[in-house]
Amino acid sequence: MDRTPTPERTACDRLSPGFGHLIRSATALERLIDKALQEEVGITHVMFEVLMRLYRDHGACTAINALDLTLTSGGMTRLLDRMEKAGLVTRGRHEGDRRVTLIRPTDKASEIFLRAVDVHVRVVERHFEAPLSTVERETLRRALARLEEVLTE
């Protein structure tokens, strides 16, 4: 393999290996979670994320930011269409602002969500927590929390 320095190879050397590890690890973990959720519960990881936000908001949400889920607004609309068709959410209009859509989980969503939480926890424990020592997990948690704080100011 030719190792002659090129501008592109020199540019690659400037990239942060830590950031690359973070992205590849997060992507691999997300795929594992998504696969398990689809096989065991019949929903995707992004559907789980929507349900989680709804339940954290006490069962009704006026807006789920598509960007938080790395979706376009059209992608979010299609996702909610699929979730509505699957009987997981209902949509309605906000009385004070017709531009706002209210999203509520259904009774079926509650049962699905609780099963999905068990799957999610199991996959995360096995593939994210178990490989690390207690000290490594706590160090990683603190570092990621700090990055989130700085990046979302």
What does this 3D model show about the protein?
- This protein has 153 residues and is mainly alpha-helical.
- Helices cover 63% and strands 7% of the residues.
- It is built from 6 helices and 2 strands.
- It has helices spanning 7-13, 17-40, 45-56, 73-85, 107-129, 134-151; strands at 89-93, 101-105.
- The protein has a two-stranded antiparallel sheet with strand order 1-2.
- Helix 2 packs across helix 5.
- The longest helix is centred in the first third of the chain and has 24 residues, at 17-40.
Choose one word for the global shape: extended
Mean pLDDT: 88
Helix proportion:
55-70%
Structural class by SSE content: mainly alpha
SSE pattern:
HHHHEEHH
Q: How would you sum up the major sheet?
A: 2 strands, antiparallel
Reconstruct the topology from this structure.
Blueprint lengths: L6 H7 L3 H24 L4 H12 L16 H13 L3 E5 L7 E5 L1 H23 L4 H18 L2
Antiparallel strand pairs: 1-2
Helix pairs in contact: 2-5
Keywords:
mainly alpha; 7% strand; 153 residues; 63% helix
Summarize the structure.
By secondary structure, this protein is mainly alpha-helical. The chain contains six helices and two strands, in the order H-H-H-H-E-E-H-H. A hairpin with a 7-residue loop joins strand 1 and strand 2.
